[in-house]
Amino acid sequence: MAPRFQLKSNVKSMECELHCPVCKEIVKQPVVLPCQHSVCLMCASEVLVKNGYPPPELPPEPNSPASTPNTRSPRQPRRPMPCKADHRPIDRVLRSGFGTYPSPGRRRKEPPPAMLFPCPPCGREVELGEKGLTDCLRNLTLERIVERYRHTVSLGSVAVMCQFCKPPLSLEATKGCADCQASFCNECFKLYHPWGTPRAQHEHVQPTLNFRPKVLSCPEHDQERLHFYCRTCQRLLCPLCKLRRVHAGHKVAPVAQAYQTLKDKITKEMNYILSNQETVLGQISQLESAITQTEANSVAAREQLSQSVRDLTSLLAERYASLAQALEGARQRRGEALAGQVAERRSLLEHAGLMAFSQELLKETDPPCFVQAARQTHSRLSTSIEGLQCFSLAADPSFRHFQLDVSKELKLLTDLQFIQAPLAPVIDTQKTMAYDQLFLCWRLPQESTPAWHFSVEFRRRGVVPGGGARGGIQGRLATARWGWQRLEEVGGTSAVIDRLEMDSVYVLRVRGCNKAGFGEYSEEVYLHTPPAPVLNFYLDSRWGLHADRLVVSKEQRCARSVPGLSLLQAADRALTSCHLTADLLVGDVAITQGRHYWACSVEPGSYLVKVGVGLEAKLQEWFHLPQDMASPRYDPDSGHDSGAEDSLDSPPSFSFLTMGMGKIFLPQAPNHHNNHGCNGTSPRRSPTIANGNSPASSPTGLTYPLPPRLGVCLDFEKGRVTFYDAHSLRPLWEGPVDCSGPVCPAFIFIGGGALQLQELVANRMADQTPVRRVTIQSRVTNLNN
User: Fold this and answer.
1) Do 778 and 592 contact (CB within 8 A), yes or no?
2) Residue 168: is the preceding peptide bond cis (ω within 30°)?
3) Angle between the N-to-C axes of helices 367-389 and 353-362, in degrees from 0 to 180, rounded to the nearest 10
4) By the 8 A CB rule, do 487 and 456 touch?
5) Is the pTM value of this prediction over 0.70?
């Protein structure tokens, strides 16, 4: 009994999967919408009618009088015979249903507007097509599952009655006929399926009230079975639908192959879930604990809300008492002042107060006594006359300045809300970069609530060996292996991440936190770390710079070239020869082993600036000899001082890329070695550039827009130098260089221009500038170690 009970329990637990999303009951005659959700046919038709569409033609319900045979005579046929098959020629069928172009002179009818069905699970409107529900196939598999569910759970107590017995003597049905689509008792089944007739060959099924067709047929072509599956459209097709032009170029497979593929995927996914039942149970425990915590925390939050309202009410009451006391004091003072003024005026009446006393005083005849007594009365009368002539109230009876302006407070109370977590930060892609360390910068939206601190998360992007990103379960496992690492409680709006692997892609995101908790994550950004350790160096100013043409900044990381007096003095030779002045600037380090990477930026308005590497000895030799750009012997791109000393197979001593006027020039691969620094024996040029702009070609190379930053990677052991777009780490050009001796970073200015070395992230975040390196050292400078 235990397995039987377990089976019933398992089947009953899936009842929620069998509910129609519209009526919330077990589905009846379900149809599959284009979004792959299933709804009852009657529910779908009612929704369409409510939305203003005409009622569709639906088959009668299985338990309706129109489909119940016992309401008709047994001799009367249950239903009309099916229509004969369409025997039209195939070309007529194609012309009628395949949407071919009309013949000339005929006007094509505009197709009716497509029906839109509001799918509750999707939360959006799904386009059904021109025919509406007619294009939707019945979900026979779901009907079979529902039938098995009813037999297992509910049909033990609810019997299916014979549809051909006359009431009240109806017997319980024992058989069902899939062809007749009716349920029979034993006697009625024998009566309607006589032995030796075609009816005796009908398919017997379990008795039911909901019969379905044996197989799915094409809704557009009657009696055509669905033998194909279009992976592009995700629709079942019949052989005629497959020939339609709408499926031309689509991935169409036999339905048996699609069946096996989908079945294998579902089996693997089920096995994966079943093998992780402990994880599921653990997550269920966490969710149940979260529900308990939710209830407890909601009670605490409600109490805190009530306490906050009580505090506001108490504070308002205290403030009301204070303001009311101030108002009452002002009323008393003003009332007393006005009352005194009234008493003073009343004393000026004819037979009262001061006037009566003055009349009695005038009756005095003794002059000395009168003068002595009348002095004060005279003063009082003078004051009263001034008061009568310049009358004003002793106090303002209005209380206008005692009114409260509570508009701001009312707005604050109206906008009173629970505290909100910060919105998703916006990452500043212009400042965010990956160099010696990874620097991430972001900001909060203007309408966001403040954040106490931020959490920065990053992970290395998993890649399948041999290339390509991981997908499916394998990709999720790779993501779990390369899990998110966090920098907790970052105070500002920027963060530095170190100890990262070279030549790797990292995914980063950030979110804010305040009293309400963590907010939403920002959009993920991808940063590519440099292909080699970053080399830190400074511009060497001790190689005899021309101060009138080349200026190096105090930090020795920026240089600017200005056309000087020498170019002006050579202007008289400009018509007879090409005379330009070139200024060489090198780094204060020499590389003798390993791989190193550095980056710089060239001002777009520069005339010509060459960036690259060269042998230290050759650079010194070229720099100290007389420089005349009119002679090809001393071309800094020639790679040596003479065209006949070196072997034709030796790599060039210099390797430069030329930039200027907002462009960068990428040389073509030459047919033979010409000892040119930019054109090595086997250079490699990237077919595209980071911004995707099309290049301007020339017989000797291609011209691209100047990238914001240029990266240089030197592999000393292999004798190769690679130039990158430092913003995206996409290679631009690669070529050989002679590494038989120490190699230095080199820069050449022709005409006006400016260059800026990329500053280390560690130096940018430090409080003070680090100590400078010495000039031309013979050991490897590696700041990452």
Assistant:
1) yes
2) yes
3) 150
4) yes
5) no
